[in-house]
Amino acid sequence: MARTAKIHRKTGETDIEITIDLDGKGDSVVDTGIGFFDHMLISFAKHGLFNLKIKVKGDLYVDCHHTIEDTGIALGEAIKKALGDKAGIVRFGNFMLPMDETLVLCAIDLSGRPYLVFDAKFNTDRVGYFDTEMTKEFFYAISYSAGMNLHLKEMYGENAHHIIEAMFKAFARALKEAVSIDPRVEGLPSTKGAL
Description:
The chain is α+β, with helices and mostly antiparallel strands. It is built from 4 helices and 10 strands; from the N terminus they run βββαβαβββββαβα.
């Protein structure tokens, strides 16, 4: 069964179309209007082996906030929809990713219970046209709309570009593990019988 989803989310601030295939090859076409954000989402697709198409029209004349946050909401919805009933998934995933002077830890539980723990500090306000404080907002939006417990921790690092990119790549690798199918799992990986 194909684990794909298409989401169209339109508000007075953004118009977003997302298509995701959880069992892809890492192919992507991304246009959010924010170059660095595009780079992060392309990295997410490549390292998670997700086929991803994202087209965003946002109110960038205001700032980048609505575009980034709403993309996180829509991407979380797409992940949740593509997972379907979650039968057979591994459920948990974690990855520790080095990038030059930076080391980032990501851990995920696709429990259906949203929660974000985010521990990182940035020594600059922006990377390109991407406000660094939006990193937390993006992952918060994904965790809540996808219904996942998501922990992201900067173990150490200095360069904001490296820290944010390591977070996106670690998230991709952890999510790839969590959504993968284990043929030994019958039904849902939960003693409750529900996720």
